[in-house]
């Protein structure tokens, strides 16, 4: 809590951040999602299962599919067993366990529509359930097809942001910098970035977050092929003007980054967000280059592992509060 | 019907609402669709069955699929029965009902391509029909796959609007307010809102709806994570300037809200509309907060069940017609 | 050919129409596509088969699928027949025709993956071909699924344009008008229209098409729920200023309309084009209303069959060539 | 390397190209992708397999599918063989090779869900593996469906650029020109083009690429139906002002073209890039027409094979360095 900071900041704060001024904790989580918990509304209505399925990791998603497959087959095996194994031909009736095993596999052969026919329904009830199960199987795989497509066709920016932001010397003064780079074989163009800062101030002895838009040297890049170092010069128009190293440490600051670009494979706009809080901002440092010409001098090599590499750099003295 | 209101409203009305000035009833239904009935054109051409399938509830959609499945199988069972059960192997020929039942299940095993083979076609006609039915089955599930994907990948805003709008005290005057909040686990950014009002006036003794654009305090929000209270200050530029509680009650008013945002999962623009008519506007009330810090003060909790909560609030006296 | 018209038109023509000034015939066909034939490039590269499949009518599309299904099965039946029917179990070997019929149905049962098993491959070659055919069958239905989805999820405006444009009396002068209306259960918002005119003039005794942008009274509509009559006032800024009935008849004119809107179901921008040539422009006529309140006065009825209804209307005298 | 060129260029260079000033080799490859190699990050994370699958040629894509199909079946055949052929009915046990062949075909019949049933699993292990294989098969075809749809629904501009750019006489001076034309049956509208130039200059005796935006006569075309010749007039605002034929030859120049249009079938924005380096620029040449009226004068014919046709054309003398 940095008392009295309100006086230092001359820039007008913005009110359309979408965050309340008494929201708690970090605003944007490191994964880019807002740090908000929702309550109320029926729980089934509060989740979009499609959004949820798209947000699962590949491993989780496949695991859920396998588990669902086993459960569905257990369920139908149980029903066929209740109806009676005498309504299925070719069942191994040596003992109940074998019966259940055969009935389980009959279910899976029906659900996947393999239908070898070694085991086949003969009675009305068994046939009816099998008819329904095969139908359900096809619908399930229709849904799975949609989910797979939804998952991998989902437009994403595939950008790597540096874990840290730095306060670097810049054109005789200082600047807040962070960088980002595309890390996959996608082609991004027309990238633009919006950077804002949430700074906690004491107003009428109540802590309160004010939002400020940070001007950047460039806010549009034609082709996002190499890394992009976003630079916010700390001049008189910056809310950080006059901040000392201690001020950066002791104030609740959150730098919120919103990047938008056009992906040429998806032919769609993609967005990615990131945020830096006080402890992720390094004072007096500058990034070291992360790309270089290849050996034959015919192409450029971008080394993504160097995205966080920086070196110490002395900042010019700043006069606080003229 | 408020006679003479035309004189009170100084703001110029807009003409590009897309609604005629002698259209009847509510303009926008509470579900956001225009209140218009279409006639003429061949009925098959007047409906996009794809739009219709996407607008069905999940329950209706699944019911239709099951019904279609049963009907198709009955239809094909009937055809196989006409061709003759002697062209199918493995049929239970004990009586006509059993024959039909077996033929029905053969149909379903063909349509779903399970094809156990316990019952299989042997003659030319039965084989031909089965060949066609299996083909039709696959195409049907191809279409179902598309419909499922279309249904759940359909970009939607998932916004909850307050059921009511309120006339609240605001900065020494009054303002029309309503609020909205995202209720699912989707992430909306770059939201903007366009608010207009349809007000019925008497012109040359004919009632007529005029449309006005309402200015809002903010019309853009960066991140739609919490609720958003949209505020239209009733000042001299507002068509509601000088309206008394009775005027709000007795005039045919419709507030039409059009919200647009960018959904980061769908990477698509989503829109949602809402409208408030006279009886849904509460005079002299203000919304109570619907979000608060969580217990550990690390996150913000948004309580969606409180979206309609308001309390009485006295409005300042307004001078009518200076 | 109207000689000397160049002098009459004062408006500057535009050069970014994308059409050359010596292109021939109508520019935009009545279905909205440019009237251009392409030549050169390998014929396989000159067509996007996906665009072609999407442009087929439903009947054509389904017919092609059925024909392809029959041809593929004939092809594979022929191959199995060459390999020898002794490599398939359950074949009716009474005569070559029956053999071929059974082999054909085996092919279809494999391609659709029904696989009853009454006929099944036993030798290496027959099994290998069946293995490949089943694989091909699944890929084919994967492609069909994509085509079905592509066809019905393809964003389209579903707008009906009036077949004719009229020159109507308007605010003491005259105006060129045409109208359009959505005819399906889709919801269009934010519609905007761009109208241009191609007028043939004689320059240095060579006929040449000049393009002009036509100003419209409104070029944006918020909600496209009812019909929209697009109005281009023929004033001094219009290229048609001073045109007499004969001028409209005798000059090669083409009005090109380009409409863009946002479809809320597809959440996508949709476009539709239309064009009117000289003989589709009626001089001295005005459209009659095509919507009216319903009986209970609770909704508006839009009668799409009336879109071309007009009545004669006298135009004010215009001074030609001041 | 053209020493001293820095002085000749008066236009201010831009800094938002997204390319570093010491990147090596061509910036944009002839296929439109940036000439950058990425390093670092786990190799599995550095590639989007979906982007990769979409970029494959149709032949490569289908080959990979067939290879995967064979490998999967070999893998499962091996497992069934290990479990023991006695757990499968109907296997030809005459010798191990025949056993393996039958087991391989059983695997393929399971993976594709054909399931003739001539060979069918009877033991627990064989049934379990078959249950899993059928499930995997369906998921694989679900993924294949998505890939097929992703591949052919991927919005693409289908534009052919001329292989060369020319320096042509233009309005008493000279201009850099290149042209492009849509070569498929797609309909592009609202096309706009951004042209920039990378010119290598020597600054402080270090070679360095500066980027310049090139103004074009038209940068927007309503309907991209015919070819479009993009014209950059070389006037005092052009970085090429005063360049002689030798200057064009001896300087490292790269003209980077970024075209955006709206495809009416995909209802999506499509982009295509192209670049021209020094040796692809022909000095003193002009393009010859590539479209003409058809025989009946009712349509326009666009001959795509003529896109590179040009003829020599003398350029007016230019004064270098006034």
From TrEMBL, chains A, B, C, D:
Principal localization?
A: membrane
Judging by the UniProt lineage, the source's domain of life is Bacteria
The topology of this chain with respect to the membrane is: Multi-pass membrane protein
| One of the record's GO cellular component terms | plasma membrane
List each copy of the Potassium channel domain by range: 70-148
What is its subcellular localisation? Answer: Membrane
Q: Which GO MF terms does the UniProt record name?
A: inward rectifier potassium channel activity
Q: Does the keyword Transport apply?
A: yes
Q: Which UniProt keywords apply?
A: Ion channel, Ion transport, Membrane, Potassium, Potassium transport, Transmembrane, Transmembrane helix, Transport, Voltage-gated channel
Q: Does the keyword Transmembrane helix apply?
A: yes
- GO BP annotations listed: potassium ion import across plasma membrane; regulation of monoatomic ion transmembrane transport
Alphabetical list of SUPFAM superfamilies matching this protein? E set domains, Voltage-gated potassium channels
Q: Pinpoint the Inward rectifier potassium channel C-terminal domain residues.
A: 159-318
Enumerate the transmembrane spans: 61-83, 124-150
Could you tell me which InterPro entries the record lists for this protein? Ig_E-set (IPR014756), IRK_C (IPR041647), K_chnl_dom (IPR013099), K_chnl_inward-rec_Kir (IPR016449), K_chnl_inward-rec_Kir_cyto (IPR013518)
Protein name per its UniProtKB record: Inward rectifier potassium channel
């Amino acid at each position: 809590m940095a008392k009295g900071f309100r006086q230092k900041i001359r820039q007008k704060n913005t009110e359309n951040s979408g965050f309340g001024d008494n929201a708690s904790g970090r605003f944007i989580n490191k994964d880019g999602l807002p740090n908000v918990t929702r309550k109320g509304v029926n729980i089934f209505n509060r989740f979009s299962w499609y959004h949820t399925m798209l947000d699962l990791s590949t491993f989780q998603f496949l695991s859920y599919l396998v588990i669902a497959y086993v459960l569905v087959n257990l369920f139908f095996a149980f029903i066929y067993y209740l109806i009676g194994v005498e309504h299925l031909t070719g069942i191994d009736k040596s003992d109940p366990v074998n019966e259940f095993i055969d009935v389980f596999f009959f279910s899976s052969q029906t659900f996947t529509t393999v239908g070898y026919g070694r085991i086949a329904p003969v009675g009305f009830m068994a046939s009816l359930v099998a008819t329904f199960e095969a139908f359900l199987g096809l619908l399930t795989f229709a849904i799975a097809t949609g989910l797979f497509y939804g998952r991998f066709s989902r437009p994403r920016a595939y950008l790597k942001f540096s874990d840290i932001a730095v306060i670097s010397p810049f054109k005789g003064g200082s600047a807040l910098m962070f960088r980002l780079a595309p890390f996959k074989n996608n082609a991004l163009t027309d990238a633009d970035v919006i950077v804002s800062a949430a700074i906690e101030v004491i107003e009428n002895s109540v802590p309160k977050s004010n939002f400020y838009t940070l001007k950047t040297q460039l806010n549009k890049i034609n082709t996002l092929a190499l890394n992009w170092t976003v630079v916010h010069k700390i001049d008189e128009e910056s809310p950080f003007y006059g901040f000392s190293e201690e001020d950066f440490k002791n104030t609740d600051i959150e730098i919120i980054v919103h990047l938008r670009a056009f992906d040429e494979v998806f032919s769609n706009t993609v967005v990615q967000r990131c945020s830096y809080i006080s402890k992720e901002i390094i004072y007096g440092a500058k990034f070291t280059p992360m790309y270089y010409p290849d050996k034959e001098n015919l192409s450029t090599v971008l080394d993504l592992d160097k995205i966080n590499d920086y070196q110490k750099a002395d900042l010019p003295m700043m006069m606080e509060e003229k």
